[in-house]
Amino acid sequence: MRLNRDVYVGIALLLICAVFLNATFDIQSPLFGQMSSALWPRIILTPLTFLSLIYVIRSMRLTEPVWEQRGSLANWFAYYKNPICCFILFFVFLLSLPYMGMLIGGIIFVFAMLSFLGGWQPRQLITHGLVSAVFVGAMWAIFTFVLGVILPEGEILRLM
Predict the structure, then answer these.
(1) Of the four listed, 74, 109, 116, 140, which is most buried by Cβ atoms within 10 Å?
(2) Which residues touch 121 (CB under 8 Å, ≥6 apart)?
(3) How far apart are the first and last CA of the chain?
(4) Tell me: the pLDDT tens digits for 140-149?
């Protein structure tokens, strides 16, 4: 067993999950007959805690970590090109929400993300367009009509 940086990060994640799970017991229950307000945080925190535990166990079993020689700043940007571009796409999506709304902006964001990560061939573009329209449209419909959540409609849908 070797204690490396990943083990410390995993233990920190376990401690954070434990603090959050403990905090869910302080959430007051509603007075009317409804499910507990702490249910959703516990549903999210339980698998997160389990995954953090797996992370700690796997980190303890690993041998010496492999260090890459990236060198210059240009090499660093080339190495982290995908996450940087994904964050930029998400930032553009957030900026476009007031104008395009959740439905149109979400479809364009998912299409751009799938195309950036999956390729730009014509057949792939059709697949990405269908996946983004169907799944973002379905999620938007569930949140809007079933759950009654008010999502940003944007200026484009407001004009229609």
Answers:
(1) 109
(2) none
(3) 63
(4) 999 999 888 8
Structure confidence at residue 115 (pLDDT): 97
Given the structure tokens 């805690």, which residue do they identify?
49
Q: Give the separation between CA 124 and CA 118, rounded to whole angstroms.
A: 8
Residue keyed to tokens 């999620």: 139
Total residues found in the chain within this entry: 160
Amino acid sitting at position 77: F
Distance between CA atoms of residues 100 and 121, nearest Å: 26
- 2 and 62 in contact (C-beta within 8 Å)? yes
Up-side HSE of residue 17: CA atoms within 13 Å toward CB?
A: 18
Whole-number Å distance between alpha carbons of 51 and 67: 24
Other beta carbons within 10 angstroms of residue 131's beta carbon come to: 15
Q: What is the pTM of this model?
A: 0.68
Enter the tokens of residue 80.
């982290």
Residue listed under structure tokens 């166990």: 57
Q: Which of 96, 108, 97, 107 is nearest to 139 (CA)?
A: 107
For the chain, how big is the Rg over CA atoms in Å? 21
Q: Which residue has the tokens 């959540």?
A: 149
